[in-house]
Amino acid sequence: MAYLKFIDGLPRVAKIILSIIPICHLLFVVYLIIKNVVDKVDVVVWVLDIIALVVDIIFYVGNIIWQILKGETFSLGRIVAGK
Q: Is the pTM of this model over 0.70?
């Protein structure tokens, strides 16, 4: 609960800066998990949050690798389409 109050109490500018820094994005993931437990949300919300996390991690890691190998921004759609 203290963690939720800490994140909720941050100024908007601080939340934006933390959102931009990829490693700090995990702070918000932990926040969502704790908030889901505290608010006793539906399983659908849990599943959607987990899917969003997995997609975000795939894009983040894929983009780093793609930038190193190709010098371009990662696009899962282009990989699937073969372009």
A: no
